[in-house]
Amino acid sequence: MRPMLVACWLGVSLLQGLALAGGRLPGGMVAWPGVFAARPDLALLLPLGLVGAAARSLRDLAACVAAAVAVAGAPVLACMGAGWALLARGDAPRHGPEHIALLLLAAGCVFPTQAGWLLPGLCAVGTGGLLGLSLSLRVAPRGLRPFHMADIAAMIAAMSLWARLPAGTAVADMRWGGTLIVAGCLFYMTASWRALRAPDARRVLTGLAGGTGAIIIMLAGLMLLARADDLPGMASCAQRTYLLVAGLLLAGMLAARALDVMEREAGALSLGRLGGLGVLMPRLSALFALALLAESGLPPLLGFSIIWMLLRLLASMPHAAGLAGEVPLLGALAVLGVGWAVRLLALVRIVAVMLCGRPRTPRGAGAADPPVRAQWGVLAAGLPVMLVSIWPGCWLALMQGAAPQAAGTWPDLAAVALTSPDGSAVLHPARLCLFVALAGAVVAVVRRLACRTPTRQVAGWQQGAPVVPPWMVFGDPLTQVGPGNPARMLLDMAVAGATRRHAMRAYALGLRLARRLARAGAGRVAGAWHGRRVPGPVALVAACVGALMFIAWQG
Question: What is the pLDDT of residues 101-118, one digit of tens each?
Fold first, then answer.
């Protein structure tokens, strides 16, 4: 069953690549407004096909099928596919309001003149679970779920919904654009904090994926602002950055595949029990570090190109002259910079513990790289990340469906560089990757010449201490990096521990009071029910009936 589904997904990916290269597929879509689209936007099917080909479990494959429905269908079918993606991830009881918001979004997209000014808010509520958005700082198992391949498919489904929002009025688009930019900055900061405080590797990746979802929200706000102010250059640049984020999801696919193999070889992925994989599993650790580097935003991989484009887009936002006009931009840049710093700290923590620390269990100490046959899948998942990072122009030409010329090449194939909205700055990722590779080669040669291996093995002096047990291959455990040491050390340098704990308690108290007020207000509204709980299907039917009544009244 599973090999057949994987083969089908590889076929879909190949056919989609041929279609984007200019080929034609036989047949077509059924023309039914609101359900089927005569010419859907199929650009996101290319990364989705790669994710489906790399999926290993039936739940991940089901999420990919639901995301394909969301990408290829018209508004009604797209919202249904997004709801199926939520069900495939196993979060149905927790995301009832999001399903209701998706139904309302489908009705609003079919009749945009009646509820067009509500669509960005409905899309934000409906795709919050798909993108991993949350303002909560909790990292408990109930507050932060582990990361799997189905989460990447869910993010692609959410991206397709954000890419097809119909145009509204200029005033509504301008207001929603600013709101989404502010919300994206806040979501980015909270997601970075959750990645920093996560107790295991999969939940760290969940926090990183939440930061990527926040970038999608910010780009949607920037596109709304560019559309409201009639800035085609800024809108085109935001769309290209949007497609680069779709390529960044392939780094999450690489990290998920690497974690699957690590979990099978080294046991549980808890940061309190895992360590030393950089020496015990060097090849797999190198691929995992490649995915983390792409997610971090450090040069030269794709995350840095996205951050560079995002900063250029924020700098080119229309704003008033004087200090009052610069304050919102400076505030957004400050919040984004703090979130990026916390994100880098989370990556330093996971690398220091998982790859550079010491093994804490006998099973972890006995881990080793799996056979070559088991590593080919992870290596194949890492190749698209490298290609997109070095030549993003080729990826954008493929995603935009550029028709081939007579010579058999895309028109944008030579334009592998990234350009700012105003055209004043150009980034060449290929040159940056070449420079980093040359610098790394020079460092490796100098280190090999300077640090020669001794011809005779000499036992180290233990100063009378007992010999280290054989499963602690990294020496004394008191001198090794622990799960909380890097983060706590750097946080204490910035903010005192007592002040940080006081702020966290005040934040938790504020959330508790807000929940109590919401429950009290809901209790007053539903006082006639005498404390009885309304079933989810009843609330869903009531919301649908209310939406239909609203549309009929406005129509």
Answer: 888 888 888 777 766 678
